[in-house]
Amino acid sequence: MATQTMTMAKALNEGLRRAMEKNKKVLIMGEDVGKLGGVFRITDGLQKDFGEDRVIDAPLAESAIVGTAVGLAIRGYRTVCEIQFDGFVYPAFDQIVSQVAKLHKRSDGVYTMGLVIRLPFQGGIGAIEHHSESPEAYFAQTAGLRVVACSNPNDAFWMIQQSIEHDDPIIFCEPKSRYWEKGEVELDAPPASLFDAQVRREGSDVTLIAYGASVKTALRAADTAAVEGVSLEVIDARSLAPLDLDTMATSLEKTGRLVVVQEAPHTASIGSEIVAELSERCFYSLAAPGLRVSGYHVPYPPSRIEEDYRPNVDRVLDAVDRVMGFES
Amino acid sequence: MSWASARGRSIQSKIPLYHRAHGFGFPGVRVDGNDVLAVYEVSKRALENARVGGGPTLIEAYTYRLGAHTTSDDPTRYRIDAEVEVWKHRDPIERVKSLLVREYKIKSKVFEEVASEADEKAQKLREDVLAMDRPDPLSMFDHAYASEHPLIEEGRREMMELGVSGGGH
Predict the structure, then answer these.
(1) For testing contact with chain A, the best of B2, B3, B7, B138 (most A CBs within 10 A)
(2) Torsions phi, psi for A130 (to 5 deg)
(3) CATH 3.40.50.970 in chain A, residues?
């Protein structure tokens, strides 16, 4: 099968290109997505090749970008909305939770909200405020929305296409700190369905569940733990709403110990949901309470201290030690 | 034509921005944003009006971003050099300078002094910023709330237990 090495940014670009070639109703809309190709160059060259009617430069008005996509969705278009940075999504919050999430229900299934809202999320790029947030839980809590997060180029390439083809609205989270990391992209077939979690590394002592940028952190923690003789199984959640609890529970029944890694603060987070659901499902297999390694309950800090906020290998291993050392 | 990030004003608003004030029931004024005295005059009148209870004024100071939006921005991808050149000639500092020379016969030595003082200040600012200590990571917990909060206490305690070092480089 054909594979190609590329960055996550390029993989998203290629995925969008393929979706646009396949379906003429696929549009892209966002701030600076046309001529500039987006601030992260994810849409680079697409306006040149597909024209200004399909790759649309929007004013700096996120509620208008999403609101317009709602109308287009009613008429059968598939709009991929680019929100330039996570912290800019809030002006569109009302459109997303009041219209995008509910129109299918409100219309008794007549209108389909097939649209994708791309959200470069999480931190780690040394940016100023509004540019490093993890708002995924707001959307995961809203009925009618689905939330996914890619963590590598292959998933980025396939998940963006699967999201565009899906009939429900998708909040598509992209770990911006991983945009420039390269990986193999399988060009012929997707690695999994959009809402499947994937085991990234097999292990037997502790199940580490992560998503987005934190997957790599979890894998690095597993490398370090292996040296010390502790075997970590790493699961990439991929879909945050709904969660693939079957894959997670299968792992936890084997290991009995759970640590979730995420950049968002832990209160009412994706990690909280994972720990709660798995405690319910795997109660008799658990050797220790599930732990969350998260960002702190503060506004995202200045860039010079952001690495003290983001979960790092040390903090993950500290949690691993705690679940390994737990005695009931 | 001004620029927000990469898209010009024509795409941001179909009408001049100062017209928008009328919808809110107060006056809007457009002023040449590169004319220091005009901006001063318009601002002064708007402030006087506000201070005597006359309500707000929207001032659209029409200008142009000559530089890049950020250090990672590449304006050559979305605007033409000729336009930038036109706006370079409208540099507000140069315009005030020629006014002072022509109308007030200010000597070039004064401008040289001002320029070198400005350069010194800018240089010092850059040096001071680069020499700044890394903030204490524990400072991220300050001022998130005005009063005590259990999650703030928990985070602070966790960070201290991890032995995160504060301050310094």
Answers:
(1) B7
(2) 75, -5
(3) 3-186
Count of domains for chain B? 2
Q: pLDDT-derived band of residue B168, with 50, 70 and 90 as boundaries?
A: very low
Question: Mind listing the pLDDT tens digit for each residue in A56-68?
Answer: 999 999 999 999 9
Closest approach of A202 to chain B, Cα-based (Å): 28
Q: What is the mean pLDDT of residues B43-56?
A: 97
- The answer to whether the Cα torsion of A196, A200, A202, A208 is positive or negative is negative
Q: Do B160 and B117 share a structural domain?
A: no
From the list A304, A279, A282, A300, the residue with the least C-alpha distance to A290 is A279
CB–CB contact A35 B149 (8 Å)? no
* A297 → closest Cβ in B77, B137, B155: B155
* Cβ-Cβ contacts under 8 Å for B13 (sequence gap 6 or more): A59, B20
Within this chain, do residues B34 and B76 fall inside the same structural domain, yes or no?
yes
Range of the structural domain that residue B139 is part of: 133-169
In this predicted model, what pLDDT tens digit does every residue of A202-230 receive, in sequence order?
Answer: 999 999 999 999 999 999 999 999 999 99
Which member of A57, A296, A305 has the closest CB to residue B11? A57
CATH fold, domain A3-186, is: Rossmann fold (3.40.50)
Whether B1 maps to a domain, the answer reads: no
Q: What is the ipTM of this complex?
A: 0.90
Using 50, 70 and 90 to split pLDDT, how confident is the model at A109?
A: very high
CATH, range A198-325: 3.40.50.920
Check pLDDT > 90 for residue B166. Answer: no
Burial A198-227 (b: 16+ CB within 10 A, else e): bebbebebbbbbbbbbbbbbbbebbeebee
Same domain? B58 vs B87: yes
Q: Is residue B26 over pLDDT 50?
A: yes
Q: Angle between the A270-281 and A245-255 helix axes, to the nearest 10 degrees?
A: 60
Per-residue confidence (pLDDT) for residue A57, from 0 to 100: 95
> B137 and B126, same structural domain?
no
